[in-house]
Specification:
With 293 residues, this protein is an alpha/beta fold. Helices cover 63% and strands 9% of the residues. A hairpin with a 5-residue loop joins strand 2 (25-29) and strand 3 (35-38). The protein starts with a strand and ends with a helix.
């Protein structure tokens, strides 16, 4: 997911650091001089996956190898390519790209400004669309390992199968679910939450109402995801704790938006309703602030 940098004021540089960069590990620079950071939640997620696998007393070495590869280097490369989608679309629309902060379901590209809400919508969907060519790559690699036989292609890992085929298969479904999760979960910081915010504004809703709606839907969605993850873990899925972890993360970010929006509502009588939202990565953008003015 991409996160706009709010160039009109001096607040964003401070807020960008407080929202994303703290506790992140610098990985260096890449194409176009974009600085890449690895968020602490990536390590927390990998720890949760290892812990949940251990709690299920899974001793299969192939399964352990799959989990470490899938949620380590493969996920890292996947989310870097996801964020490049946001970055390239931002540049195509005339915006600028700064830092890239990676976390388990995508990341944050500090970018902007994009001059319109519709442009911001296009930037939001560009990241998830990057999973489609990756799905094609992993499907092709699976075919190479199996001689084109897809009869055993399944979401469930078969550790008795060819290890390369198993990794390719699970990497395909990793991208498939990241595509669905980012694009269709209407909760920030998922790209679907940013699409929701832009869509509400384009439909004529005020910035304050759109922010409160996005926050409310985000918290409800996050709670459902967390409960679903806990139930899955109880029923035997080693990935259930990871799902619950993601739900908790989404709830926290949505609640932050809720608090900012409440402060903005309280300040509306003073004619300063939009100011408290300037620190938010979505609603602090210039194209949103201009609509709130």
């Amino acid at each position: 997911m991409s996160t706009p940098d709010n160039t009109p004021t001096q607040e964003p540089e401070h807020d960008r650091s407080s929202w994303y960069a703290k506790g992140s590990l610098p990985l260096g620079s890449c194409i176009g001089g974009i600085s890449i950071y690895l968020h602490w939640s990536f390590f927390a997620m990998l720890g949760v996956v290892i812990l949940s696998t251990a709690l299920r007393q899974i001793s299969d070495g192939a399964y352990w190898g799959l989990m470490i590869l899938l949620y380590g280097p493969i996920l890292l490369i996947t989310i870097i390519l996801h964020e490049f989608g946001h970055a390239f679309m931002t540049k195509a629309l005339g915006g600028q790209v700064g830092d890239m902060v990676l976390w388990p379901l995508g990341g944050f590209v500090i970018c902007g400004p994009v001059e319109s809400v519709s442009g911001d919508f296009n930037v939001a969907i560009a990241g998830p669309l990057m999973h489609l060519p990756q799905m094609g790559f992993w499907a092709g690699l699976y075919a190479a390992f199996t001689g084109g036989d897809f009869s055993d292609f399944s979401i469930y890992a078969d550790t008795s199968a060819n290890f390369g085929a198993m990794v390719s298969e699970q990497a395909f479904f990793l991208n498939f679910y990241l595509f669905l999760f980012n694009l269709f979960v209407p909760a920030y910081p998922m790209d679907g939450g940013r699409c929701l915010a832009a869509g509400l504004i384009l439909c004529g809703m005020s910035v304050i109402c759109a922010a409160m709606t996005t926050a409310g839907i985000g918290m409800l969605t996050a709670a459902a995801i967390a409960v679903w993850g806990i139930v899955r873990f109880i029923l035997g899925s080693p990935n259930g704790l990871f799902t619950a972890f993601i739900g908790a993360w989404i709830f926290i970010t949505s609640y932050r938006l809720f608090k900012l929006t409440r402060r903005s509502e309280e300040g509306a009588s003073e004619g300063n309703a939009a100011n408290n939202l300037r620190s938010h990565p979505i609603f602090g953008q210039r194209c949103y602030q201009e609509r709130a003015a």
